[in-house]
Specification:
Length: 488
């Protein structure tokens, strides 16, 4: 209470002194009748200060509850994890999207080619920026199921804020041509990143900001570590490993409190990448020099690495309806799919295709097939226009950029043109020993480690269709990078 009084008092004094200064200069210029004007001006200023005080109090109240919440979350977590720190802490904020998220694919990509030593030297923190407990738990559960070892060993953590974290977003000012929804989104994003940064701060030497819909270049971990250690000057604040928004930005953990203070101070006012740029401006630029000088100074604080190590996968941003078409041009190209001359067929699937990555294109070899995560009972079907003799087949799921997007618990079945082969293709004493499905398909093979390649016994005869049947749900998306049906 006393302190609050004090600050009001200080404001008023300052106000009076300022008003007085105005008054004196005004009188010296025009002379006479100064007192009325002094009164009006003083009152006006007084009103203004009261208003500013009110706004400030509200804001500082919000901020202090925000900080308390972060402290509480950090405190709760600290005794559950190891106390030794790592080199690299990676922060991934994620929010609920209308379409499926690519979080599991992102994690796969991050852990894919890491050595045991590198795994021991990093922590990945997923920040589920939602307060719906059911949703948060479902994410935590799929992460636990998909990455049990990483979760157990403490290199993968899932956190989320309590409902009290977020202040009222209803009365935000619409600025910079952004709609109300967009202003709310960017204000929340500022708070989300701030939370994550403060949480991650004590866990390692460097903090890398990521997003939940990205893919990484092979050996990204070592590249980042080397680049950070090789910096000859200590001046840098940000090392940039991607040109996109807020992906692939590396900070020194010790700088994070300052950066977060800055974000929190202006979280309602601007998007986070602008705030970061302003912070650099404040630190590096001399307002009496020109923009070119400023850019040069900022370049000491923000150092870019080329080529980019991170790329967006999603065209769907987490802001509902916003299309995220940004692609990092420096990311480069890999061989992502392999074409084969497949026999004419009608292709169908129960899987939900992602964008233009259709099954048809994959069958022709012009693109990968890519689809949202499957459920048990989903299938991919290749029906030949007329029955064919098939020598064998090869199906490969996943590729370099999406190594984890494989088919699991999936069998390959063929539909014989002559159903009588079913009578002798199974059971005791039969020539062949295959399982038959209820709907008359013969099981020929199953995906192992994302790939299946088999020859088909010629005694099965002509084949009408080949089917990939998925027997259990999977949390990851499905990508087919190679389809090869070897017809005679
Ligand atoms: C953390 O440690 C405190 C005391 O050291 C204990 O009371 C608390 O239950 C612990 N929390 C967890 C989540 O283990
Ligand atoms: C972890 O904490 C324990 C006890 O607090 C201490 O003995 C140990 O040295 C710490 N380990 C590291 C790597 O800091
Ligand atoms: C195959 O079995 C079905 C019934 O299971 C029978 O109707 C059919 O005649 C059999 N065909 C041959 C060639 O044995
Ligand atoms: C399978 O056939 C063998 C002989 O060919 C016979 O001894 C055996 O009992 C049969 N098994 C079944 C389950 O019919
Ligand atoms: C494959 O799916 C079946 C049917 O849902 C299930 O019983 C089986 O345990 C699954 N196998 C694996 C390896 O997940």
């Amino acid at each position: 209470m006393r302190r609050k009084h004090g600050s009001v008092l200080a404001f008023l004094c300052l106000g009076a002194a300022f008003a007085f200064a105005c008054y004196t200069t005004w009188t010296s210029r025009s002379g006479g009748n100064g007192l009325d004007s002094y009164q009006t001006q003083f009152l006006e200023l007084h009103q203004r200060l009261l208003y500013a005080e009110k706004v400030n109090k509200k804001r500082s109240h919000e901020l202090s509850s925000v900080l308390n919440e972060i402290k509480r979350a950090v405190g709760e977590k600290t005794n559950s994890t190891a106390n030794d720190t790592v080199s690299l802490v990676m922060g991934i904020p994620t929010v609920k999207r209308e379409k499926q998220s690519y979080l599991m694919g992102t994690l796969n990509s991050l852990f894919f080619d890491m050595s045991a030593e590198q795994r021991n030297d990093c922590v990945v923190v997923i920040f589920v920026a939602e307060v719906n407990a059911e949703y948060v738990n479902s994410i935590a559960e799929s992460v636990r199921v998909r990455f049990p070892n990483e979760v157990l060993s403490g290199i993968l953590e899932v956190i989320s804020p309590s409902a009290f974290y977020y202040p009222e977003f209803s009365n935000l000012k619409e600025t910079f041509g952004d709609s109300k929804e967009r202003v709310r989104w960017r204000a929340k994003q500022n708070l989300d990143y701030s939370f994550l940064m403060l949480y991650a701060q004590s866990k390692g030497t460097f903090y890398l900001q990521l997003e939940d819909d990205i893919i990484v270049k092979p050996q990204y971990f070592q590249t980042i570590k080397n680049f950070a250690v090789q910096q000859t000057s200590d001046e840098w604040m940000i090392l940039e490993f991607s040109q996109l928004g807020f992906i692939g930005k590396l900070f020194r953990s010790q700088d994070l409190p300052l950066i977060v203070d800055f974000f929190l101070m202006f979280y309602k006012d601007k998007p986070i990448d602008w705030l970061l740029d302003h912070l650099l401006w404040v630190k590096a630029c001399n307002p009496e020099r020109n923009a070119k000088h400023c850019e040069r100074q900022k370049a000491y604080l923000r150092i870019g690495y080329k080529p980019s190590l991170f790329q967006h996968v999603g065209v769907h941003s987490s802001l509902t309806g916003k299309i995220q078409t940004l692609k990092d041009k420096d990311f480069g190209k890999n061989i992502l799919h392999k074409a084969h001359a497949n026999p004419s067929a009608k292709v169908t699937t129960t899987l939900k295709e992602y964008q233009h990555y259709t099954l048809e294109k994959a069958y022709k070899g012009t693109e990968c097939f890519w689809a949202f995560a499957p459920l048990a009972g989903d299938y991919i079907l290749f029906s030949f226009l007329k029955p064919l003799r098939i020598e064998g087949f090869l199906f490969r799921s996943g590729n370099v950029e999406h190594p984890g997007d494989k088919l699991f618990n999936t069998t390959v079945e063929v539909l014989p043109s002559d159903e009588t082969v079913l009578n002798f293709s199974t059971g005791n004493g039969s020539k062949l020993n295959y399982q038959i499905t209820k709907d008359g398909y013969i099981k020929i093979g199953a995906f192992k480690n994302g790939v299946v390649e088999e020859v088909i016994d010629p005694s099965i005869g002509k084949i009408q269709a080949i089917r990939l049947s998925i027997h259990s749900p999977s949390p990851v998306w499905v990508l087919l990078s190679e389809i090869f049906i070897k017809a005679h």
